[in-house]
Design goal:
Length: about 270
């Protein structure tokens, strides 16, 4: 973390690894990911689940969901972004003391007032170490910057937490049309291609049926934040939609050991419960 004009900035940790560090090269890769256009959703998107691998692997799958935000991009001012912890073990959800995240595209300010709303919850902790090298949040930011332009970020790294604990945090931050919830998660890891497709298909059914009880750690690395969203999506009667389901064998990897990627959007139909 470094200080710039009195602000504490969390610098990019995986630029040059998971995505290009050069802004022009990153813009080209993001544009390439958006090349496969998808239809617009019937209703505004309230939440989404998107993958977080290197952009050459999962970028096209994630982009298929992000482009569905374009019709409502001017209304979204705040993004609540949750992803799993890959490097640091802890209980609950981790906030950061940073004032902003940085990517090659620039600075994304953190909504400090939103963090104040949840910091009294027993499952929420200040843990900068969980954010320092975590890629699950960072790789989503270039897409969000490309689609939304300026927005405030609420970044939370999720450790060992129950669906109810995650749902309680999301409920506090739910907001209205100005707030988008993004859950960062890949699906199965390192199975042969056909086996992975079977496993991911079952996980996909569980997501679309809003059933967190059928999603284990082997099904999705972001199981904890995913299941928290599914718990809350049931209460708010959100309608889930599968946008894309592929794996690294379909995008840029071989088929002997693949990682699964799914993109899902959750919409609030008119007259739905808020």
């Amino acid at each position: 973390m470094y200080t710039q004009q009195g602000q504490r900035i969390r610098p990019p940790a995986v630029a040059g690894q998971f995505y290009p560090a050069d802004p022009a090269s990153l813009e080209a890769l993001v544009r390439e990911s958006f090349a496969e256009a998808r239809k617009a959703p019937l209703h505004p998107v309230k939440a989404m689940i998107v993958p977080h691998a290197g952009l050459i692997y999962s970028g096209p799958v994630a982009a298929s969901a992000y482009q569905m935000l374009l019709p409502q991009a001017d209304r979204i001012r705040r993004v609540v972004l949750l992803g799993p912890s890959h490097r640091v073990g802890f209980h609950g959800l981790a906030m950061t003391s940073a004032d902003a995240y940085e990517t090659p595209f620039g600075i994304v300010p953190i909504d400090k007032s939103a963090l104040e709303e949840i910091q009294g919850l027993p499952q929420v902790h200040l843990l900068d170490e969980a954010h320092r090298y975590e890629h699950s949040l960072e790789v989503q930011l270039p897409f969000l910057q490309a689609v939304l332009g300026d927005f405030y970020l609420v970044p939370l790294v999720v450790g060992d937490a129950t669906p109810e604990q995650v749902a309680e945090v999301l409920e506090r931050l739910w907001g209205g049309d100005e707030t988008l919830i993004v859950i960062s998660s890949d699906l199965s890891h390192y199975h042969p291609y056909d086996e992975a497709r079977m496993i991911d298909s079952e996980t996909s059914k569980a997501i679309l049926e809003l059933d967190p009880s059928r999603i284990g750690y082997d099904n999705a690395c972001g199981r904890n934040p995913v299941n928290g969203l599914l718990e809350l999506a049931r209460r708010h009667r959100l309608q889930p939609e599968l946008v894309d389901l592929r794996n690294s064998g379909d995008t840029a990897g071989d088929k002997s050991q693949v990682v699964g990627y799914g993109a899902y959007v959750f919409s609030q139909p008119p007259g739905g419960m808020h």
